[in-house]
Amino acid sequence: MSSLKVVHLVPLLALLLGLGLAAPVAAQSLSPLEKTGVTPSDRKAFRLVVGNPYKQKMTFDVIPMQPDYQTPAAGAKVNYPRITMGPGISRQIIFTFDIDPKVKERKIALCIQPASLDGPILPRVCGLYVGRMAGRGS
Questions:
Q1: Fewer Cβ within 10 Å of end Cβ, the chain: N or C?
Q2: What pLDDT sits at residue 122?
């Protein structure tokens, strides 16, 4: 009786394996994707990790953006605005941005995208980060 159950499981396992192989290729990674932090000054920094899950060496652009994910952000920079990594490699980056002392808080996005892919769809991964000056109820 148990051999009959195995016979029924074989087609199901084959289907699941086929679906797993047809899954989309992973995109570049950014970790963490959201973070909030307090700073005693008008400048905030976050240590983030960028990863290359592709099967070949890739170059990525690291772009600070406004929270609309469309507009480049002034007063923000990353220590490696273009980074090349081998397959399966991850690397730490430092992302810093200015905070207006009158507002005491700034929300900013950071996007990672392949530097040289052509086509109508450009894979991009973005995170959202909030910096608050100390004394703002945080």
A1: N
A2: 73
